Amino acid sequence: MTERYAIADVDEFDGDGSRVISEVEGQEIAVFRHEGEYYALANFCIHQAGPLCEGALSGSISTDEDGWDWVYDDEERYIVCPWHGWMFDIETGRSPKDERYAVPTYDAVVENGTVYAVR
Amino acid sequence: MLDNALQVPEADRLGSVEDLDRIVDADAQVQETPEALLEHMDDSSGARRVISLTELRHDMIYAGPSSYPLYEYKRTDGDDGPVAEDDVSETIGAAEVAERATEAGIDDGVVNPTLNLGLSEVNNDRFAVALASAYNDWLLSQLDDCPNLVGNAVVAPQHPERAAEEIDRVADEDDIVGIQLPASGLMPPPGHRQYEPLYDAAESNDLPIAMKSTVGNKSFGQQYWWAQSFPEDFVYQHGFVQMRNLTSILFEGIPEQYDIDFVIQGAGIGFVPFFTHRLDDHYLELGYEIPALSQLPSAYLSESFYWTTNPMNQPAGGDPQFAAMVNMIGPENVLFGSDLPHGVTDLPETVVDRLADTVTAGELAAVMAENTERVYGL
């Protein structure tokens, strides 16, 4: 059965990179605004149950094709847990290093100026 | 209860050590002496001259200041009579190791050096290379008459190109089944790019790399120098040395770059679950600093790293910790290792006793023989 939670009005977001964390029925859900879209995921780090979505947003560092030069992609789509630094893609909920590690995500739906988390 | 949770059905269990088809030891040692190595050096060799100037004291060849001589003295009766059989001043050749292995119920084994486990700590590169070659020639002469033993050839990490040449030189010998890269005092650590020739040679000759940690030398960097006693050094060295080396090997991407099996010896298995989880944890946290890997460190450990059992370091009397560790690592990655002929030897029946109720008979047969046969291609 689909669950639908009202998280925030769109007016509460301060542009891209902002977030709202709301407690709904005993669980905290975070909605991030990123490049004009909204993404929702649980405020819960699967590592040691830290408040994942209270951490910083980050881009990603990788190496180029020759495996040597470090390249920083400044698209800040990764949420970094403030407790131990595990990071997850806010769109997919998955670790960039191993997709088996993932936090729960929700579909973020905007209706009549309200952002809902739907699952 | 932990032990109850681990138990396998009685029908799947091995009855006793006598029910095993065979036992293969992944970690025995011959014991070379400076005198023995001299016989395998040319008369005109500069290394031979240097060794002769040391008065053949192993501690003058392989290590700096150490409390090891005191430890050895304690193992005498006060009149230089040994009270243990592992006094490193005496040669223990392959025939004697084979005899002791047979007495212990071991059918076959892979031997490592003793003194040359300290080879990484020899400062002079020419000297180190000469010692490795002399040891390998001595080892081959020893193994000629021992059909049940094979060995790891030692290489001098001080000169990776010469180490590669040494691997190529001995790789075709039937009695050489792997390479011993002395783990203790290995600097820079083994993930460093300078070792690429060594890994290239091991891979191209399809030889696994064994790394056995030792003690009593300047093995673990500066912290060693503050050890007040031999036991203060001995307790932590083996495990910490291996964790330092393996972190380097993994995070610098050696198993991504090379198809080589690693056999980790001398530290037991107790540290492995802790270490594995810690590697994964920090990879998931700081993976952007570890670009050489494409999967979790634990995945590489499962694919190509093997752990020998000695020392078990477990309480006696049915304690379930050792069995828990084997199950956490996976019995397919654990190799029985005795450390014969040394005083802290774990005999086969001890290992079987600790595992008989908690791994299946098939898994126990793998731990006690088949895994080693597979890794070393025996």
From TrEMBL, chain A:
Q: Which keywords has UniProt assigned to this entry?
A: 2Fe-2S, Dioxygenase, Iron, Iron-sulfur, Metal-binding, Oxidoreductase
Q: PROSITE patterns from the xrefs?
A: RIESKE (PS51296)
Task: Spell out the InterPro entries in the cross-references.
Answer: Rieske_2Fe-2S, Rieske_2Fe-2S_sf
Q: Which Gene3D superfamilies match?
A: Rieske [2Fe-2S] iron-sulphur domain
Report if keyword Lipid biosynthesis is assigned: no
Which ranges carry the Rieske domain? 4-117
List the Gene Ontology MF annotations in alphabetical order.
2 iron, 2 sulfur cluster binding; dioxygenase activity; metal ion binding
The name of this protein is: Ferredoxin subunit of nitrite reductase or a ring-hydroxylating dioxygenase
Q: Which organism is it from?
A: Halobellus clavatus
Automatic annotation (TrEMBL), chain B:
Q: Does the keyword GTP-binding apply?
A: no
Name of the protein described by the UniProt record: Amidohydrolase-related domain-containing protein
PANTHER family the record matches = 2-AMINO-3-CARBOXYLMUCONATE-6-SEMIALDEHYDE DECARBOXYLASE, ISO-OROTATE DECARBOXYLASE (EUROFUNG)
Keywords, sorted A to Z: Lyase
GO MF term list: carboxy-lyase activity; hydrolase activity
User: InterPro entries from the entry?
Assistant: ACMSD, Amidohydro-rel, Metal_Hydrolase
Q: Which organism is it from?
A: Halobellus clavatus
Q: Which residues form the Amidohydrolase-related domain?
A: 113-378
Query: Pfam families, alphabetically?
Result: Amidohydro_2
Question: GO annotations under biological process?
Answer: secondary metabolic process
Q: Which GO terms describe its cellular component?
A: cytoplasm
